């Protein structure tokens, strides 16, 4: 992990910096990555994406919740989001984090919160993607995913991270589920004993797990802005006659927008991850860490105000 990335991720949990950032609101520059603070604004942004042939996944931001009421409230919020999607007829599913649903309080409580959301998704013929957080939450996340996947096979999917050594083994163990995975490089600050420290290894592993999953006939969401990964996927799927209906590209709101539009125009399924809500600070710092040049952009913005 680069020093700059490590430094930026190091401030994610810093309370002083986080309250400073929240006070200065989205004007600090976070609005480049966050589609507003309300569901209504987020839906308006999805409508614009849909008009360009890009579908979406809505993320009501929040994580690391330690209160039962707040976690249950976060689940209620996701139910409203699914209802809002149905009512506004936008093309979007939802993505959520288990620590927002109470994973740090109790696994069963967390699972029942997520089950309420997944059950609503089934009723509305929609889909819930469980984001993957840091490796300390991985085993519990997989276990909850397995429980939900058994009862709601078509309405829940998971994220797998290529920077983790264990991902290949996890995929093998879960292969009987024929799951719909989103494959990412991984965005958290992880130690060398659990994650590849070198970018080349992370990239190679990402290609490897995508190939493996597709060759087994499963659906894959390739979530990366890295053109080398995207080109590789296109060449690989063409070379192995894997239909476009078996995979989609995913990118984040506000990043590589031209590339998102170009792929959609070329006939690929492109899904944009659209985060919204008031708790944007940890999401924002991960975006800064991925590209330290973003920090300069934010500082310039701040001094302009
Ligand atoms: P890489 O970091 O190599 O970047 C390739 C290029 O993309 C850069 O050169 C730059 O042009 C552009 N780029 C990338 N990040 C940028 C940024 N922040 N600002 C501006 N430009 C940027 N992670 C995780 O651990 N758990 C999860 O659940 C998810 N979920 C998720 C969903 C979706 C839809 C995406 C796209 C990503 C995630 N991630 C994630 C984040 C992921 O792990 C990873 O940190 C980022 O996608 C950055 O890696 P890239 O694959 O884009 O490549």
From TrEMBL:
Judged by the first EC level, this protein's enzyme class is: oxidoreductase
Q: What does the entry's cofactor note say about binding and number?
A: Binds 1 FAD per subunit.
List the taxonomic lineage.
Bacteria, Bacillati, Bacillota, Clostridia, Neomoorellales
BP GO annotations: L-proline catabolic process to L-glutamate
Originating organism: Metallumcola ferriviriculae
Q: Which reaction does it catalyse?
A: L-proline + a quinone = (S)-1-pyrroline-5-carboxylate + a quinol + H(+)
> Which cofactors are required for activity?
FAD
Tell me one Pfam family matched here.
Pro_dh
The annotated pathway is: Amino-acid degradation; L-proline degradation into L-glutamate; L-glutamate from L-proline: step 1/2
Q: Which UniProt keywords apply?
A: FAD, Flavoprotein, Nucleotide-binding, Oxidoreductase, Proline metabolism
Q: Which GO terms describe its molecular function?
A: nucleotide binding; proline dehydrogenase activity
Which ranges carry the Proline dehydrogenase domain? 43-297
Listed name of the protein: proline dehydrogenase
**Which amino acid positions bind substrate, per UniProt?**
97, 286-287
Q: Where does FAD bind?
A: 132, 161, 185-187, 199, 224-225
Enzyme Commission numbers on file: 1.5.5.2
Q: Which InterPro entries match?
A: FAD-linked_oxidoreductase-like, PRODH_bac_arc, Proline_DH_dom, Proline_oxidase
